[in-house]
Design goal:
The complex is a heterodimer of chains A (257) and B (170). Chain A has helices spanning 4-15, 21-33, 35-52, 62-80, 83-97, 104-132, 143-146, 151-165, 169-197, 203-223, 227-245, 248-252. Chain A is mainly alpha-helical. In chain A, 12% of the residues are buried. Chain B is mainly alpha-helical and 170 residues long. Chain B has one domain: Rna Polymerase Sigma Factor, Chain: A. Chain B is globular. The interface between A and B is large, with 55 and 61 residues.
Chain lengths: 257, 170
Protein backbone atom coordinates (compact mmCIF):
# COMPACT_ATOMS: atom_id res chain seq x y z
CA UNK A 1 0.00 0.00 0.00
CA UNK A 2 1.39 3.41 -0.96
CA UNK A 3 1.66 5.80 1.93
CA UNK A 4 1.31 9.58 2.02
CA UNK A 5 4.93 9.87 3.16
CA UNK A 6 6.10 8.16 0.00
CA UNK A 7 3.79 10.10 -2.31
CA UNK A 8 4.27 13.67 -1.05
CA UNK A 9 7.96 14.03 -2.01
CA UNK A 10 6.92 13.07 -5.57
CA UNK A 11 4.09 15.57 -5.82
CA UNK A 12 6.35 18.42 -6.97
CA UNK A 13 7.78 16.34 -9.81
CA UNK A 14 4.32 14.95 -10.66
CA UNK A 15 2.68 18.38 -10.85
CA UNK A 16 5.52 19.66 -13.03
CA UNK A 17 4.82 16.77 -15.45
CA UNK A 18 8.29 15.33 -14.95
CA UNK A 19 7.34 12.00 -13.37
CA UNK A 20 7.55 8.88 -15.54
CA UNK A 21 4.19 7.42 -16.60
CA UNK A 22 4.21 4.40 -14.29
CA UNK A 23 5.12 6.51 -11.25
CA UNK A 24 2.56 9.15 -12.31
CA UNK A 25 -0.12 6.48 -12.34
CA UNK A 26 0.76 5.50 -8.76
CA UNK A 27 0.54 9.14 -7.61
CA UNK A 28 -2.77 9.68 -9.44
CA UNK A 29 -4.18 6.49 -7.90
CA UNK A 30 -3.22 7.68 -4.41
CA UNK A 31 -4.65 11.17 -4.97
CA UNK A 32 -8.03 9.64 -5.90
CA UNK A 33 -8.17 7.90 -2.53
CA UNK A 34 -6.48 10.40 -0.18
CA UNK A 35 -8.20 13.72 0.50
CA UNK A 36 -5.24 15.08 2.52
CA UNK A 37 -2.75 14.55 -0.30
CA UNK A 38 -5.30 15.98 -2.77
CA UNK A 39 -5.39 19.14 -0.67
CA UNK A 40 -1.58 19.36 -0.63
CA UNK A 41 -1.51 18.84 -4.41
CA UNK A 42 -4.12 21.60 -4.93
CA UNK A 43 -2.13 24.01 -2.72
CA UNK A 44 1.10 23.21 -4.50
CA UNK A 45 -0.51 23.67 -7.93
CA UNK A 46 -1.98 27.03 -6.83
CA UNK A 47 1.44 28.08 -5.50
CA UNK A 48 3.24 27.01 -8.68
CA UNK A 49 0.72 28.88 -10.85
CA UNK A 50 0.96 31.93 -8.59
CA UNK A 51 4.76 31.96 -8.89
CA UNK A 52 4.60 31.58 -12.67
CA UNK A 53 2.16 34.47 -12.96
CA UNK A 54 4.22 36.92 -10.91
CA UNK A 55 4.65 40.06 -13.00
CA UNK A 56 8.09 40.69 -14.51
CA UNK A 57 10.16 43.38 -12.84
CA UNK A 58 11.45 46.11 -15.15
CA UNK A 59 14.97 47.35 -14.47
CA UNK A 60 15.28 51.08 -13.74
CA UNK A 61 16.54 53.37 -16.49
CA UNK A 62 19.58 54.25 -14.39
CA UNK A 63 20.93 50.68 -14.48
CA UNK A 64 22.86 51.06 -17.75
CA UNK A 65 24.45 54.33 -16.63
CA UNK A 66 25.45 52.68 -13.35
CA UNK A 67 27.07 49.77 -15.20
CA UNK A 68 29.04 52.26 -17.36
CA UNK A 69 30.18 54.18 -14.29
CA UNK A 70 31.34 51.00 -12.55
CA UNK A 71 33.18 49.79 -15.66
CA UNK A 72 34.96 53.13 -15.94
CA UNK A 73 35.90 53.04 -12.24
CA UNK A 74 37.20 49.48 -12.60
CA UNK A 75 39.36 50.49 -15.60
CA UNK A 76 40.82 53.43 -13.67
CA UNK A 77 41.57 51.10 -10.75
CA UNK A 78 43.26 48.67 -13.19
CA UNK A 79 45.44 51.44 -14.58
CA UNK A 80 46.59 52.39 -11.07
CA UNK A 81 47.61 48.87 -10.12
CA UNK A 82 51.34 48.12 -10.19
CA UNK A 83 52.54 45.96 -13.06
CA UNK A 84 53.45 42.98 -10.83
CA UNK A 85 49.90 42.89 -9.46
CA UNK A 86 48.33 42.98 -12.91
CA UNK A 87 50.61 40.11 -13.97
CA UNK A 88 49.71 38.09 -10.87
CA UNK A 89 46.00 38.66 -11.48
CA UNK A 90 46.40 37.70 -15.13
CA UNK A 91 47.96 34.36 -14.17
CA UNK A 92 45.39 33.81 -11.43
CA UNK A 93 42.62 34.35 -14.01
CA UNK A 94 44.37 32.01 -16.41
CA UNK A 95 44.62 29.33 -13.71
CA UNK A 96 40.91 29.70 -12.95
CA UNK A 97 39.81 29.52 -16.58
CA UNK A 98 42.36 26.95 -17.80
CA UNK A 99 40.65 24.15 -19.65
CA UNK A 100 42.84 21.41 -18.14
CA UNK A 101 41.06 19.76 -15.25
CA UNK A 102 42.98 16.79 -13.90
CA UNK A 103 41.10 13.54 -13.54
CA UNK A 104 41.66 11.20 -10.60
CA UNK A 105 44.12 8.91 -12.48
CA UNK A 106 46.05 12.00 -13.63
CA UNK A 107 46.15 13.32 -10.06
CA UNK A 108 47.31 9.91 -8.82
CA UNK A 109 50.01 9.81 -11.49
CA UNK A 110 51.12 13.34 -10.61
CA UNK A 111 51.32 12.38 -6.92
CA UNK A 112 53.43 9.32 -7.73
CA UNK A 113 55.75 11.41 -9.93
CA UNK A 114 56.09 13.99 -7.16
CA UNK A 115 56.85 11.27 -4.58
CA UNK A 116 59.41 9.68 -6.93
CA UNK A 117 61.03 13.07 -7.62
CA UNK A 118 61.32 13.81 -3.88
CA UNK A 119 62.77 10.35 -3.26
CA UNK A 120 65.28 10.81 -6.09
CA UNK A 121 66.36 14.22 -4.82
CA UNK A 122 66.74 12.82 -1.29
CA UNK A 123 68.87 9.93 -2.55
CA UNK A 124 71.05 12.28 -4.64
CA UNK A 125 71.51 14.62 -1.72
CA UNK A 126 72.45 11.64 0.45
CA UNK A 127 74.95 10.43 -2.17
CA UNK A 128 76.40 13.91 -2.53
CA UNK A 129 77.07 13.87 1.22
CA UNK A 130 78.81 10.52 0.85
CA UNK A 131 80.92 11.72 -2.11
CA UNK A 132 81.89 14.82 -0.20
CA UNK A 133 83.70 12.68 2.40
CA UNK A 134 87.37 12.50 1.26
CA UNK A 135 89.47 9.52 0.17
CA UNK A 136 86.70 7.20 -0.85
CA UNK A 137 87.73 5.13 -3.84
CA UNK A 138 85.14 3.57 -6.08
CA UNK A 139 85.45 -0.20 -5.99
CA UNK A 140 86.29 -2.06 -9.15
CA UNK A 141 83.43 -4.20 -10.30
CA UNK A 142 80.73 -4.67 -12.86
CA UNK A 143 78.70 -1.60 -13.86
CA UNK A 144 75.45 -3.29 -12.71
CA UNK A 145 76.83 -3.43 -9.20
CA UNK A 146 77.61 0.28 -9.20
CA UNK A 147 74.15 1.13 -10.44
CA UNK A 148 72.33 -1.09 -7.96
CA UNK A 149 69.51 0.89 -6.42
CA UNK A 150 69.75 2.01 -2.85
CA UNK A 151 67.27 0.55 -0.35
CA UNK A 152 65.16 3.73 -0.53
CA UNK A 153 64.72 3.54 -4.35
CA UNK A 154 63.88 -0.13 -4.03
CA UNK A 155 61.09 0.86 -1.68
CA UNK A 156 59.74 3.20 -4.37
CA UNK A 157 59.45 0.42 -6.88
CA UNK A 158 55.86 -0.63 -5.98
CA UNK A 159 54.77 2.98 -6.55
CA UNK A 160 56.46 3.07 -9.93
CA UNK A 161 54.75 -0.20 -10.84
CA UNK A 162 51.41 1.26 -9.76
CA UNK A 163 52.10 4.23 -12.02
CA UNK A 164 52.68 1.92 -14.96
CA UNK A 165 49.23 0.41 -14.53
CA UNK A 166 47.44 3.81 -14.56
CA UNK A 167 45.82 4.30 -17.96
CA UNK A 168 46.01 8.03 -18.59
CA UNK A 169 46.80 7.66 -22.29
CA UNK A 170 43.21 7.12 -23.42
CA UNK A 171 42.03 10.13 -21.46
CA UNK A 172 44.82 12.35 -22.79
CA UNK A 173 44.14 11.20 -26.36
CA UNK A 174 40.48 12.18 -26.00
CA UNK A 175 41.34 15.68 -24.70
CA UNK A 176 41.93 17.40 -28.12
CA UNK A 177 38.55 16.14 -29.40
CA UNK A 178 36.82 17.44 -26.24
CA UNK A 179 38.52 20.82 -26.61
CA UNK A 180 37.61 21.14 -30.31
CA UNK A 181 33.98 20.22 -29.57
CA UNK A 182 33.86 22.82 -26.82
CA UNK A 183 35.28 25.49 -29.14
CA UNK A 184 32.66 24.61 -31.79
CA UNK A 185 29.88 25.09 -29.24
CA UNK A 186 31.20 28.48 -28.13
CA UNK A 187 31.60 29.69 -31.72
CA UNK A 188 27.95 28.71 -32.41
CA UNK A 189 26.72 30.63 -29.37
CA UNK A 190 28.79 33.71 -30.09
CA UNK A 191 27.64 33.72 -33.74
CA UNK A 192 24.03 33.83 -32.48
CA UNK A 193 24.85 36.81 -30.26
CA UNK A 194 26.76 38.49 -33.09
CA UNK A 195 23.76 38.12 -35.42
CA UNK A 196 21.63 39.80 -32.76
CA UNK A 197 24.13 42.68 -32.66
CA UNK A 198 24.31 43.09 -36.47
CA UNK A 199 21.42 45.51 -36.62
CA UNK A 200 23.49 48.10 -34.78
CA UNK A 201 26.55 47.82 -37.07
CA UNK A 202 27.42 49.92 -40.10
CA UNK A 203 27.26 48.29 -43.53
CA UNK A 204 31.03 48.65 -43.82
CA UNK A 205 31.65 46.86 -40.52
CA UNK A 206 29.13 44.14 -41.41
CA UNK A 207 31.04 43.42 -44.63
CA UNK A 208 34.41 43.44 -42.79
CA UNK A 209 32.96 41.14 -40.09
CA UNK A 210 31.59 38.66 -42.66
CA UNK A 211 34.87 38.62 -44.55
CA UNK A 212 36.96 38.08 -41.42
CA UNK A 213 34.69 35.34 -40.07
CA UNK A 214 34.59 33.58 -43.47
CA UNK A 215 38.39 33.86 -43.73
CA UNK A 216 38.97 32.38 -40.27
CA UNK A 217 36.47 29.58 -40.86
CA UNK A 218 38.20 28.71 -44.15
CA UNK A 219 41.56 28.57 -42.37
CA UNK A 220 40.05 26.37 -39.60
CA UNK A 221 38.66 23.98 -42.19
CA UNK A 222 41.98 23.77 -43.99
CA UNK A 223 43.86 23.20 -40.72
CA UNK A 224 41.81 20.04 -39.93
CA UNK A 225 41.27 19.08 -36.26
CA UNK A 226 44.71 19.60 -34.75
CA UNK A 227 46.36 22.18 -32.52
CA UNK A 228 46.59 24.76 -35.36
CA UNK A 229 42.79 24.47 -35.85
CA UNK A 230 42.25 25.07 -32.12
CA UNK A 231 44.50 28.14 -32.24
CA UNK A 232 42.48 29.50 -35.16
CA UNK A 233 39.21 28.72 -33.33
CA UNK A 234 40.60 30.70 -30.39
CA UNK A 235 41.24 33.65 -32.73
CA UNK A 236 37.71 33.37 -34.13
CA UNK A 237 36.22 33.30 -30.60
CA UNK A 238 38.27 36.35 -29.57
CA UNK A 239 37.21 38.21 -32.73
CA UNK A 240 33.51 37.40 -32.15
CA UNK A 241 33.67 38.40 -28.47
CA UNK A 242 35.24 41.74 -29.32
CA UNK A 243 32.81 42.30 -32.19
CA UNK A 244 29.91 41.75 -29.75
CA UNK A 245 31.27 44.09 -27.07
CA UNK A 246 32.44 46.60 -29.70
CA UNK A 247 36.18 46.65 -28.91
CA UNK A 248 37.45 48.86 -31.73
CA UNK A 249 41.17 48.43 -31.08
CA UNK A 250 40.96 44.66 -31.07
CA UNK A 251 38.88 44.60 -34.26
CA UNK A 252 41.33 46.90 -36.02
CA UNK A 253 44.06 44.30 -35.38
CA UNK A 254 41.94 41.65 -37.12
CA UNK A 255 41.19 39.52 -34.07
CA UNK A 256 44.60 37.92 -33.80
CA UNK A 257 45.90 37.16 -30.31
CA UNK B 1 28.05 45.15 -25.32
CA UNK B 2 24.79 47.10 -25.26
CA UNK B 3 22.96 44.34 -27.15
CA UNK B 4 24.09 41.79 -24.60
CA UNK B 5 22.90 44.09 -21.82
CA UNK B 6 19.47 44.53 -23.39
CA UNK B 7 19.18 40.79 -23.99
CA UNK B 8 19.73 39.91 -20.33
CA UNK B 9 18.79 43.01 -18.30
CA UNK B 10 15.23 41.92 -17.41
CA UNK B 11 16.17 38.46 -16.23
CA UNK B 12 19.29 39.58 -14.38
CA UNK B 13 17.48 42.43 -12.65
CA UNK B 14 14.38 40.27 -12.00
CA UNK B 15 16.42 37.51 -10.37
CA UNK B 16 18.40 39.99 -8.28
CA UNK B 17 15.19 41.81 -7.30
CA UNK B 18 13.53 38.66 -6.02
CA UNK B 19 16.58 37.28 -4.24
CA UNK B 20 17.93 40.42 -2.53
CA UNK B 21 14.87 42.69 -2.60
CA UNK B 22 14.02 45.89 -4.44
CA UNK B 23 16.35 48.29 -2.65
CA UNK B 24 19.57 46.39 -3.44
CA UNK B 25 18.63 44.81 -6.78
CA UNK B 26 20.10 47.60 -8.92
CA UNK B 27 23.45 47.41 -7.12
CA UNK B 28 23.61 43.63 -7.60
CA UNK B 29 22.55 43.84 -11.27
CA UNK B 30 25.25 46.47 -11.93
CA UNK B 31 27.84 44.23 -10.28
CA UNK B 32 26.71 41.30 -12.46
CA UNK B 33 26.97 43.23 -15.73
CA UNK B 34 30.40 44.60 -14.80
CA UNK B 35 31.58 41.02 -14.11
CA UNK B 36 30.01 39.85 -17.40
CA UNK B 37 31.66 42.54 -19.54
CA UNK B 38 35.03 42.26 -17.84
CA UNK B 39 34.94 38.45 -17.87
CA UNK B 40 33.50 37.91 -21.36
CA UNK B 41 36.91 37.76 -23.03
CA UNK B 42 37.97 35.01 -20.62
CA UNK B 43 34.70 33.07 -20.98
CA UNK B 44 35.72 29.73 -22.48
CA UNK B 45 32.35 28.15 -23.04
CA UNK B 46 32.36 25.52 -20.33
CA UNK B 47 28.62 26.23 -20.09
CA UNK B 48 26.05 28.16 -22.12
CA UNK B 49 26.49 31.94 -22.05
CA UNK B 50 23.08 32.38 -20.41
CA UNK B 51 23.92 29.79 -17.73
CA UNK B 52 27.16 31.62 -16.99
CA UNK B 53 25.37 34.98 -16.69
CA UNK B 54 22.61 33.56 -14.45
CA UNK B 55 25.23 31.82 -12.28
CA UNK B 56 27.01 35.15 -11.84
CA UNK B 57 23.66 36.70 -10.92
CA UNK B 58 22.72 34.10 -8.31
CA UNK B 59 26.24 34.11 -6.82
CA UNK B 60 26.35 37.91 -6.69
CA UNK B 61 22.91 38.03 -5.06
CA UNK B 62 23.73 35.36 -2.46
CA UNK B 63 27.09 37.00 -1.69
CA UNK B 64 25.33 40.33 -1.31
CA UNK B 65 22.88 38.79 1.16
CA UNK B 66 25.72 37.16 3.08
CA UNK B 67 27.58 40.49 3.26
CA UNK B 68 24.54 42.29 4.52
CA UNK B 69 23.45 39.51 6.85
CA UNK B 70 19.99 39.59 5.37
CA UNK B 71 19.43 35.92 4.71
CA UNK B 72 15.82 35.76 5.71
CA UNK B 73 14.12 39.00 4.86
CA UNK B 74 13.61 41.17 1.84
CA UNK B 75 11.66 43.94 3.50
CA UNK B 76 8.42 45.59 2.55
CA UNK B 77 10.20 48.20 0.43
CA UNK B 78 10.74 45.45 -2.14
CA UNK B 79 7.01 44.91 -2.39
CA UNK B 80 6.04 48.55 -2.66
CA UNK B 81 8.46 49.08 -5.55
CA UNK B 82 6.85 46.35 -7.65
CA UNK B 83 5.06 47.61 -10.75
CA UNK B 84 1.29 47.15 -10.84
CA UNK B 85 0.67 43.66 -12.22
CA UNK B 86 -1.67 43.43 -15.22
CA UNK B 87 -3.89 40.81 -13.57
CA UNK B 88 -7.11 40.76 -11.59
CA UNK B 89 -7.33 42.21 -8.10
CA UNK B 90 -7.48 38.78 -6.45
CA UNK B 91 -4.46 37.59 -8.40
CA UNK B 92 -2.69 40.80 -7.44
CA UNK B 93 -3.35 40.19 -3.74
CA UNK B 94 -2.07 36.61 -4.00
CA UNK B 95 0.98 37.82 -5.96
CA UNK B 96 1.81 40.32 -3.21
CA UNK B 97 1.47 37.59 -0.55
CA UNK B 98 3.65 35.25 -2.59
CA UNK B 99 6.30 37.98 -2.97
CA UNK B 100 6.22 38.56 0.79
CA UNK B 101 6.44 34.83 1.60
CA UNK B 102 9.31 34.53 -0.89
CA UNK B 103 11.16 37.18 1.07
CA UNK B 104 10.81 35.13 4.26
CA UNK B 105 12.46 32.02 2.78
CA UNK B 106 16.12 31.12 3.32
CA UNK B 107 18.20 32.48 0.42
CA UNK B 108 18.92 29.04 -1.09
CA UNK B 109 15.21 28.13 -1.33
CA UNK B 110 14.48 31.58 -2.76
CA UNK B 111 17.11 31.08 -5.47
CA UNK B 112 15.70 27.74 -6.66
CA UNK B 113 12.11 29.06 -6.70
CA UNK B 114 13.18 32.15 -8.66
CA UNK B 115 15.11 30.10 -11.22
CA UNK B 116 12.65 27.23 -11.70
CA UNK B 117 9.18 28.56 -10.94
CA UNK B 118 9.44 32.26 -11.73
CA UNK B 119 12.02 32.31 -14.54
CA UNK B 120 10.84 28.94 -15.88
CA UNK B 121 14.29 27.36 -16.25
CA UNK B 122 14.60 23.57 -16.43
CA UNK B 123 16.07 21.44 -13.64
CA UNK B 124 19.13 20.85 -15.84
CA UNK B 125 19.69 24.60 -16.22
CA UNK B 126 19.05 25.25 -12.49
CA UNK B 127 21.54 22.52 -11.56
CA UNK B 128 24.16 24.03 -13.90
CA UNK B 129 23.59 27.52 -12.45
CA UNK B 130 23.62 26.42 -8.82
CA UNK B 131 26.42 23.94 -9.51
CA UNK B 132 24.66 21.02 -7.89
CA UNK B 133 23.13 17.72 -9.02
CA UNK B 134 19.71 17.61 -10.71
CA UNK B 135 18.42 15.42 -7.87
CA UNK B 136 19.55 17.99 -5.30
CA UNK B 137 17.86 20.70 -7.32
CA UNK B 138 14.53 18.79 -7.38
CA UNK B 139 14.74 18.06 -3.67
CA UNK B 140 15.48 21.73 -2.86
CA UNK B 141 12.51 22.81 -4.99
CA UNK B 142 10.21 20.38 -3.16
CA UNK B 143 11.36 21.69 0.23
CA UNK B 144 11.11 25.32 -0.90
CA UNK B 145 7.53 24.83 -2.13
CA UNK B 146 6.61 23.03 1.10
CA UNK B 147 7.94 26.00 3.10
CA UNK B 148 6.00 28.40 0.86
CA UNK B 149 2.81 26.34 1.37
CA UNK B 150 3.30 26.61 5.12
CA UNK B 151 3.84 30.37 4.89
CA UNK B 152 0.85 30.96 2.61
CA UNK B 153 -1.42 28.31 4.15
CA UNK B 154 -4.91 29.83 4.30
CA UNK B 155 -4.35 32.11 1.29
CA UNK B 156 -3.75 29.12 -0.99
CA UNK B 157 -6.84 27.39 0.43
CA UNK B 158 -8.89 30.54 -0.32
CA UNK B 159 -7.49 30.62 -3.82
CA UNK B 160 -8.45 26.97 -4.36
CA UNK B 161 -11.98 27.64 -3.06
CA UNK B 162 -12.32 30.57 -5.50
CA UNK B 163 -11.15 28.37 -8.33
CA UNK B 164 -13.64 25.65 -7.39
CA UNK B 165 -16.50 28.18 -7.25
CA UNK B 166 -15.57 29.54 -10.67
CA UNK B 167 -15.39 25.98 -12.10
CA UNK B 168 -11.59 26.02 -12.60
CA UNK B 169 -9.54 22.89 -12.31
CA UNK B 170 -7.54 22.49 -9.09
Amino acid sequence: MTTCDKIRPRLTTYLDGELADDHGSVVRGHLRECADCRGVARDEAALRDGLRLLPPVDPPGSLWAGVHARLAAAEVADARKPRWRRTAEHWARWARTARFTPTMPQLAAASVFAAAAIALLTVRAHRADEVATPAVALPDGPREQLLRPSPSTARDRPEAEALATVDVTADLLAEPARTTESYDRVVGELMTSAHASRAGWSAEFRAAFDARVAGLRGEIERAGRGRQAQRLQGSLIAYLQHAIIGDGMMLASGGSQ
Amino acid sequence: MEMLYHQYKRRVFGMAHRIVGGSDAEEVAQEVFVRVFRGLAAFRGDSALSTWIYRLTVNAALSHLARRGRRNEVGDDGLTELPAPPVTERDSALAARIEKALGQLPAGYRAILVLHDIEGLSHEECAAILECRIGTCKSQLHKARARMRDLLGAHLADRNAERKDSGGTP
